[in-house]
Amino acid sequence: MKGTMFSSSVYGRLMDRYLFNFRVDPDVLENHLPPVDWLKPRIVNGSGVVSFCLLRLKGVTFWPLPSFLGFDTTSCAYRCAVIDNSGESPEPSVYVLGRNTDLRIVNRLGPVLFSGPMQMIRTSFVDTPSSVDIRASYLDGQKLFSAKVRPSKTKKSESQLFNSLDAFVSFIKGGASSYTPSTHANQYSRVDLEEDSNYYEAVDATVDYNWLDRAWPDAGLVFDSAFRAEGGRYKLRYLGSMPAQSQNESLCIQNAEKVVPA
Q1: Predicted local distance difference test score (pLDDT) of residue 194
Q2: How far is CA 106 from CA 71, 74, 156, 177, 192, in A?
Q3: For the chain, what is the radius of gyration of the CA atoms?
Q4: Distance (Å, whole) CA 134 – CA 238
Q5: ∠ at Cα 120 (136, 52), nearest 5°?
Q6: Nearest to 97 by CA among 41, 37, 50, 147
Q7: How far apart are CA 234 and CA 93, in angstroms?
Q8: What domains, with CATH codes, occur in the chain?
Q9: I need a surface site. Which of 89, 135, 150, 247 has the fewest CB within 10 A?
């Protein structure tokens, strides 16, 4: 891991976190990962996993400043479950195609603090008597993601990835590190998540629009499950950059170029 002049951290209070999970053939997913030898798909019950993560944070500010000085914001990202082989032993991790934010100050400061682009988006949450309608789009009007979320009708999991809520919680907490294309050429910035969400629940969801269906037409993404979390502190810490170690770096940038709108 390449050293940095300082280790920047931001944190806030988690109000809502939604994760929409898709199954994908592991070989197809590997073709969309960076062409490096230290990131490989993390296989869960025979499938690769791609998730759309959307979260609402309250009081986001620099650690350790008090949260009342911070801002409320919504952010989102597409994330691929991977195994990180860069250390002494393989570890679960996440490859983030790009982070997005609805707050201009985060859009401006994010690349400085985390060495990764953050594209502006618009988001909306519309509560109805039976569901929450979630929408995210780019400032030019292009859709990013939309779904209807409803309380789960049954406690029995119909997911082919996670046979229980505990299985999902173990999966998501097992991938606390993440890599994303850096603002510096031929590098990937690493950001680690520290979160103590005190409540998770499975929810029923209907995905109306998924940007990756257009960006990755060969992927054959299959919607699998959705979960919601709330409560607790949500802290992101920048740990530096990892060299690409590949001469095919441009392929990764092309694959992630539009989604890194985050």
Answers
A1: 86
A2: 9, 10, 39, 20, 17
A3: 17
A4: 29
A5: 40
A6: 50
A7: 17
A8: 9-256 (2.40.400.10)
A9: 89
Q: What is the 3-state secondary structure (H, E, C) of the chain?
A: CECCCCCCEEEEEEEEEEEEEEEECHHHHHHHCCCCCCEEECCECCEEEEEEEEEEEEEEEECCCCHHHCEEEEEEEEEEEEEECCCCCCEEEEEEEEEEECCHHHHHHHHHHHCCCEEEEEEEEEECCCCEEEEEEECCCCEEEEEEEEECCCCCCCCCCCCCHHHHHHHHHCCCEEEEECCCCCEEEEEEEEECCCEEEEEEEEEEEEHHHHHCCCCCCEEEEEEEEECCEEEEEEEEEEECCCCCHHHHHHHHCCCCCC
What is the identity of the amino acid at 246?
S
Place of tokens 């979260």: 55
Question: Which tokens belong to 18?
Answer: 């939604």
Neighbours of 166 (CB within 10 A): 11
pLDDT at 244: 81
Taking only the tens of pLDDT, the chain with its 262 residues reads 444 444 678 889 899 999 999 999 999 999 999 989 999 999 999 999 999 999 999 988 776 665 666 788 899 999 999 999 988 899 999 999 999 999 898 888 878 888 888 999 999 999 988 999 999 999 999 999 999 999 998 766 789 999 999 999 999 988 889 999 998 888 999 999 988 777 999 999 999 999 999 999 999 999 999 999 998 888 989 888 888 864 333 333 333 333 433 3
Q: How many residues does the chain have?
A: 262
